[in-house]
Amino acid sequence: MALLTPRDLENLSMQLEENDETIKRVTGLDVRGICEELYGTKPGSLKVGIIPITAGDGIISNFASSLLFITQYFGLEGAITEHSDMTGYYEAVSQGADIILMADDHMFVAHNLRKGKIVSNHVATGIIYAEIASRFREASSKDILVIGLGRVGYAGAAHLMKKGFNVYACDPNRGFLEKAVKELGIKPYCSEDRKRFSMVLEATPNANTISEGMIEERCLVSTPGIPCGLPPEIGKKYRVDLVMEPLVIGVASMLYSVI
Ligand code: 1J1
Ligand code: MG
């Protein structure tokens, strides 16, 4: 998993505002609206306990405060525990948290203690970025391309198959590709196919994963992947609408999926 840096999380509310504007223009709904339709839930008066975790590379300075901002933005009550790790967990539960948010370097979860629902950031992120791509109002067909079949891309591809899209996908890892073909029924995509897409979900930790031959003019690229897979000059030339944001959209999906 690509770890966030404090720099990625600077100007989070501005990044959200810009992306929400794009999402609204290309899908007709903002992130809130998409989450409500996707999960059929609305935030009520729930308390979210945010626990800093020191394992692995340790605390990312503005990670917990970013989660608090997101929690409150979507209308939930939030608190960052004073202590980290297990002591923080004890603190959050003792103080009446309904939902726990915490992350180490491998797993980031939202756990609703009342409902016993748990979701990983990978799955929630894959689903919402796929959903955004799939809602493109100006899509030319039901064909959609998924680039990268790791935990995020796989969850996105599964979601799109369930929604009845024609899902094409690629991944340099043959095992990942074969697994998605076998388990999900996606079609393998290779650039020699000369097929172009108006909707793309990019879920890789790499830059330059999108090349000219893959996309239609005025397509939509939806990507949580840092760095961005779309080279800026291609984005410009093809007048691509780009949805890309480091944390808020994925966490919104996590919260709405467990409430
Ligand atoms: C580590 C989070 C690492 C990522 C979405 O509690 C802390 O401050 C640290 N242990 C948090 N995970 O960076 C993922 C989350 C995108 N990357
Ligand atoms: Mg990328």
Q: Label the overall shape.
A: globular
**Strand runs, count:** 11
CATH topology of the largest domain: Rossmann fold
Cofactors, ions and other ligands in the entry: N~6~-[(2R)-3,4-dihydro-2H-pyrrol-2-ylcarbonyl]-L-lysine, magnesium ion
Assembly of the depicted chains: single chain
The number of helical elements comes to 9
The fraction of residues assigned to DSSP E strands is: 15-25%
Largest sheet: 6 strands, parallel
Secondary-structure-based class equals: alpha/beta
Unreliable stretches? none
Question: What CATH architecture of the largest domain would you give?
Answer: 3-Layer(aba) Sandwich
Give the fraction of residues assigned to helices: 25-40%
| Average pLDDT over all residues | 97
What can you see in these coordinates?
With 259 residues, the chain is of the alpha/beta class. It folds into two domains: 6-120 and 250-258, 3-Layer(aba) Sandwich (Rossmann fold); 124-244, NAD(P)-binding Rossmann-like Domain (Rossmann fold), CATH 3.40.50. 39% of the residues lie in helices and 20% in strands. The protein is built from nine helices and eleven strands. It has helices at 12-27, 31-39, 63-73, 85-94, 121-134, 151-162, 174-184, 232-237, 248-258; strands spanning 47-51, 77-80, 99-103, 108-112, 117-120, 143-147, 166-170, 187-188, 197-202, 215-222, 241-243. The strands form two sheets. Strands 8-7-6-9-10-11 form a six-stranded parallel sheet. A five-stranded mixed sheet has the order 2-1-3-4-5, with helices on both faces. A hairpin with a 4-residue loop joins strand 4 (108-112) and strand 5. Helix 5 crosses helix 9. The longest helix has 16 residues, at 12-27. The radius of gyration is 18 Å and the shape is globular. The two termini are 25 Å apart. The model has no long low-confidence stretch (mean pLDDT 97). The structure holds N~6~-[(2R)-3,4-dihydro-2H-pyrrol-2-ylcarbonyl]-L-lysine and magnesium ion (MG). Residues 1-4, 52-53, 59-60, 63-64, 103-105, 108, 121, 247 line the site of N~6~-[(2R)-3,4-dihydro-2H-pyrrol-2-ylcarbonyl]-L-lysine.
